Amino acid sequence: METIEELKVHYGWTEEDEENLAKVSWLGEKYKEDFIEEFYRYLENFSDTSKYLPDEEVRKRHKEKVKGWFASLFTSKYDAQYLRKLYRIGETHVRIGLPPHYVQASMNFVRNYIADKLTMEMGSTLEANSILKSINKALDINLDVMINSFREEELRLYLASGKYQRLLIENVRRVSWFFDTFIILTLAVVGVFLIFWIVYEIGLVLKGDFPLERGGLSILGSVLVLYAISELLAEEIKHIRGSALSLKVFVGVALAAVIRKILIISLSPEKVQELITLSVVTLSLGVVFWLIYRVESKL
């Protein structure tokens, strides 16, 4: 990892930047209470905040630490000790499994918050602009160190593994990539087949080989299944990019298939028993879908 001197060179940190922060050293202390309230309102945008801040005691400790970091942003001496402090913050994020994206997004909130407060206090003056540039450099240094701690911790854990463990990890990753690629290609092929099938059904209806009412319901059901497959394909792509796989998508595909079946047999009075059975299945799948949605929204 770079030293604090190297970071200062990379970000063009000068004595003027230190002087600029000293001019607004009161800013962090004045607004830290308002900042933490606004920051927690911002955290509500993340669906799984409760996963990392599960109870009031954890939230209380977290608020105090964030307020301390916010105030020190303007008053700290940017030296090796401050660098170690930032690195420890990053290590804490790694331990609780916080995605780096959350840190980057949160830093953008902090940047905008400070810019608004600085403009409110000093207006759009040349001095205010100069101070804001220095604050942005400080935030960039903070973000750089925190994100690097993620990468270094992951690398440390990887290197700590034995030779055969690393070989196994790499091979499993390759196999997993092959499986994911195969699944995406298969879903895409199935989607294409469904499009041809829908076009074929439309052709049958137009030629009069298929009753309009039955044909319309069959086409509607096929479109519903195609939509479900499209959602499943999109979910798999998100999974490859690092997102968690949502179980409700699979239930959605099953729902679409059952509903298509119901639409087709709904015109056959002699299949009342089968229709009732499928209706019960649809209700059950709907309840499962709702339960999964409730659970996933709380994570």
Automatic annotation (TrEMBL):
<dbReference type="GO" id="GO:0020037">
    <property type="term" value="F:heme binding"/>
</dbReference>
<feature type="transmembrane region" description="Helical">
    <location>
        <begin position="275"/>
        <end position="293"/>
    </location>
</feature>
<protein>
    <recommendedName>
        <fullName>Globin-sensor domain-containing protein</fullName>
    </recommendedName>
</protein>
<keyword id="KW-1003">Cell membrane</keyword>
<keyword id="KW-1133">Transmembrane helix</keyword>
<dbReference type="InterPro" id="IPR012292">
    <property type="entry name" value="Globin/Proto"/>
</dbReference>
<feature type="transmembrane region" description="Helical">
    <location>
        <begin position="245"/>
        <end position="263"/>
    </location>
</feature>
<feature type="transmembrane region" description="Helical">
    <location>
        <begin position="175"/>
        <end position="200"/>
    </location>
</feature>
<dbReference type="InterPro" id="IPR044398">
    <property type="entry name" value="Globin-sensor_dom"/>
</dbReference>
<dbReference type="GO" id="GO:0005886">
    <property type="term" value="C:plasma membrane"/>
</dbReference>
<dbReference type="InterPro" id="IPR020948">
    <property type="entry name" value="P_starv_induced_PsiE-like"/>
</dbReference>
<dbReference type="Pfam" id="PF06146">
    <property type="entry name" value="PsiE"/>
</dbReference>
<feature type="transmembrane region" description="Helical">
    <location>
        <begin position="215"/>
        <end position="233"/>
    </location>
</feature>
<keyword id="KW-0472">Membrane</keyword>
<dbReference type="InterPro" id="IPR009050">
    <property type="entry name" value="Globin-like_sf"/>
</dbReference>
<dbReference type="GO" id="GO:0019825">
    <property type="term" value="F:oxygen binding"/>
</dbReference>
<dbReference type="Pfam" id="PF11563">
    <property type="entry name" value="Protoglobin"/>
</dbReference>
<feature type="domain" description="Globin-sensor">
    <location>
        <begin position="2"/>
        <end position="154"/>
    </location>
</feature>
<keyword id="KW-0812">Transmembrane</keyword>
